[in-house]
Amino acid sequence: MMKKSFQSLQKIYQAIKIPKELPYEVNKAIKKAQKRKLSFATRTTIKVCTTLATCFIVFVVMVNVNPNFVAAVENIPVLSQLVEWLQIREIHEKTEVDVIDAQIPNLTNTGNTELERTINQKINEKIQELIEIARNDAYESKKMLESYDPNYKFEPIHLNISYEIKSAQNGILSFIITQEQTDNIHANVHVQKLMYNIDLNHNKELSLQDLLGKNYEQIVNTQIKEKMAQIEKEGTGDFFEPEDFPYLEHGGWFEGITENQKFYVNESGNVVIVFDRYEIAPGYMGMPEFEIEFTD
């Protein structure tokens, strides 16, 4: 009986995912962010930006939950485009292993049904894939835990899928779909982000080259390295370096953007490069973002 319990415990231990940043945390203490006093002008700017961002968020929420609000903005050119371009599909499911609440945007009324079909298929297939992976993992966890303790009461995982519009102007629609998974087994919320950038003027999904030109890779890599160096110099953040992973030949630190690099277009029309948590920095840095400035 004791042997069986030990083996079960060993399986649970081996199933625990070790954070990618662990070697870094062991070999290097995280720098403490220095608190700096902000000028009156900076505080004012932050308040204004926060107010504008709040208004935009309220608009997005109202578009999806209040039909009367939608009807009211349909006569306002810029806002009516936003209402017109996206149709929200909801999923609410509950099984013995998961609870799913999802709001999934689908492209519509662009005048190009082929573009809509392609983008929507990509979105819906990816969402279904994420749901199936999470559900299968939950079943595996339930099975493993109950094999160790038949009386164990498994608590369903919670899967929340939402969306956020980053830009809807000049014919460019940029939005993010976020999956957040919580459970009673892992301490952290598991987050995945899917990003879509669509040029409705030319009926296509945008690439970094479309937005930044043929030298986009050099432009992006140079600016990211400069911004990372500035952040570390100011003591407001930290990033992985090769010496933090002495047993790896590559990976774990920033070497340059990838072929499928995540990005979105912000309200200023600038590209924002996004990295997953632990991809280039410790977990406390979250998902690092770098706004890329246009260069002549």
Q: Low-confidence segments, ≥5 residues, pLDDT <50?
A: 1-61, 63-67, 69-80
Radius of gyration (CA) equals 22 Å
Report the major sheet. Answer: 6 strands, mixed
Q: What is the N-to-C succession of helices and strands?
A: HHHHHEEHEEEEHHEEE
Shape: flat
Q: What strand order characterises the main sheet?
A: 1-2-3-4-5-6
Number of strands: 9
Hey, roughly how much beta strand do the residues contain? 15-25%
Helical content (DSSP H or I, runs of 4+):
40-55%
Count, helices: 8
- The termini sit apart by 72 Å
How would you classify the helix and strand content by structural class? alpha+beta
How do you describe this structure in short?
The chain has 296 residues and is an alpha+beta fold.
Describe the structure.
This protein is an alpha+beta fold and 296 residues long. Helices cover 41% and strands 23% of the residues. It has eight helices and nine strands. It has helices spanning 2-15, 22-27, 40-65, 67-73, 77-85, 113-148, 208-212, 216-234, and strands spanning 86-94, 98-107, 157-169, 172-182, 190-199, 204-205, 262-265, 271-274, 289-292. The chain has a six-stranded mixed beta sheet, with helices on both faces. A three-stranded antiparallel beta sheet has the order 7-8-9. A hairpin with a 2-residue loop joins strand 3 and strand 4. Helix 1 (2-15) runs antiparallel to helix 6 (113-148). The longest helix is centred in the middle third of the chain and has 36 residues, at 113-148. It is flat and about 65 Å long. It starts with a helix and ends with a strand.
